[in-house]
Amino acid sequence: MSVTNVLIVGVGGQGVVSAARLLAQAVLDSGRKVTVGQTFGASQRGGSVHTSVRIGDEAHGPLIGLKMADFLLAFEPYEGLRYLQLLAPGSKAIVNDQPDVPVRDQLAKTFPPLEEVWQILEAKTGKLYRLSATSLARRIAARHGGGGLDITNTVILGAATAVEGFPADMDMLKQIFERRFKSKVLSMNLEALNAGRDWILGQRG
Amino acid sequence: MGVQVKKRLMLGNEAIAWGAIAAGIDLAAGYPGTPSSEVIQTLVDLAPEYGHYVEWSTNEKVAVECAAAAAWAGLRAMAVMKHLGLNVAADALATLAYTGVRGGMVILSAGDAQCHTSSNEQDSRLFARFVKLPILDPSDPAEGFSYTKMAFEISERLELPVIVNSTPRLSHTSQAVELEPIERQRHRKAQFLEDKDRWICVAAAALRRHRWLNSRLAESRARLSGFPLVRRLYSGRRLGIITNGVAHNYVLEAVDQLGLRREVSILKIGMSFPFPEDEVAAFAREVQRILVVEELEPFVEEQTCLTLYRRDIHTPVKGKGLVPREGELTPDVVIAAIETALNIKRPKEPSETVSLPQRPLLFCPGCPHRATYYALRQALRRLSKRPLILGDIGCYTLATSYPFELLDTLLCMGSGVGMAHGFAKAGLDRPILAVIGDSTLFHSGLSPLANITYNRSNVTVLVLDNSYTAMTGAQPNPSTGYTAVGEEVARISIQEVAHALGFEYIKEVDAYDVKTVEEALVEALSHVGPSMVISRRPCALQVQRLERKKGISLKSLPKVDSEACIGCRTCLTAFGCPAIKWDEERGKAFIDQNRCTACGDCTKVCPVGAIKAEEGQK
Question: Is B482 helix (H, G, I), strand (E, B) or coil?
Answer without folding.
Answer: strand
